[in-house]
Amino acid sequence: MAEKLNKSMLTKFVLLSVILTIFISHAHAVRIKDITDIEGVRKNQLVGYGLVVGLNGTGDGNKSEFTTQSMASMLEKMGITVSYEDIKVDNVAAVMVTADLPPFARVGNRIDVLVSSIGDADNLQGGTLLLTPLKAADGKVYAVAQGPVSTGGFSSGGEGGKVQKNFPTVGRVVGGSTIEREILFNFNQKKTLSLRLHNPDFTTASRVAEAINTALYEQIAKTPDAGTIQVGISEKYSGNIVGLVALIEGLNVVPDTTSKIVVNERTGTVVMGDNVRISTIAVAHGNLSIQIKESKDVSQPLPFSQGVTVVTPETEISVEEEKNKLLLVKSGVTIGEVVRALNALGVSPRDLIAIFQAIKAAGALQAELEII
Fold this sequence. Notes:
Layout: H1 2-27, E1 30-31, H2 32-35, E2 36-38, E3 44-53, H3 65-77, E4 92-101, E5 110-117, E6 128-135, E7 141-148, E8 154-157, E9 162-165, E10 170-179, E11 192-197, H4 202-216, E12 221-225, E13 228-232, H5 241-249, E14 252-253, E15 260-264, E16 269-272, E17 277-278, E18 281-283, E19 288-299, E20 310-321, E21 327-329, H6 335-343, H7 349-361, E22 365-366, E23 368-371
Parallel strand pairs: 15-23
Antiparallel strand pairs: 1-14, 2-11, 3-4, 3-6, 4-5, 5-10, 6-7, 7-10, 8-9, 11-13, 12-13, 15-16, 17-22, 18-21, 19-20
């Protein structure tokens, strides 16, 4: 009876250990979708030159000749002949229009565009973007944009002052661009998939490949380098690569990172990674504070005594030094212990930067120190 009870308790203990192991691993795991990109599936940048009209006297001035030349060229295409020298308007602004063409975009889809002034316009609020072709790097037109500009800010003032919120010379036309040309990409006929890690790492790449092979029960994922995972397309998923990608993106892995401390001396920011370790060291840190005060003692003669006013300068100097003793910082097992040991010194983030630099120079910092 006792043996059966012991076996039952042992079985429960093993099951509990397995459940805890799975829970802990998934608690720190992330989806493959969040740490990789698929080669060939990316956005493409579009750019165009256009005009924003309907501004309330806040457009480009007469010094921006390219704006008036653009106006004259546009009116000429509409059958109105006018010299650009005769155009004197301040309700028009020349702008650059930019957009990102998403992958697998189809003709007729609408995307947002960003409108940025390139002249001396003060405000694009209330303006309307005229029909603007958007070209890619190959010089072909892939979309056209037109519509009301939303700046999300304002600018108002007079000769004596000005009030401004955000940047009114930059605006967005929500859904203002229509795609007119598609980028040919036969994704469903690919023979292999290449996953690109956002942060190349040999351990992470190996874990991603292992997770894919385990989930598919096939050795189809390989790692040619630290940033690439190549996945072969088996006959099972031939013609259904989208389903394969959906399955792979949903898998969980635990990404590995290098031990690194990033410090920003301009802002006093210190960021430490999870794997940072410090060997056993003794640290003493103290600041020397010198304060100098100057004052003047004025001695004035009595009235009608024909005396001379005497000014005597007085200087007071005080020197104060913190009396910090040596603090033993033991080798930390976790980042929490490292933080607690360093906080015991009672130093500011800027002092912490100097301490990390000294620990690194002593060879006791088992991590990369990056200063930005």
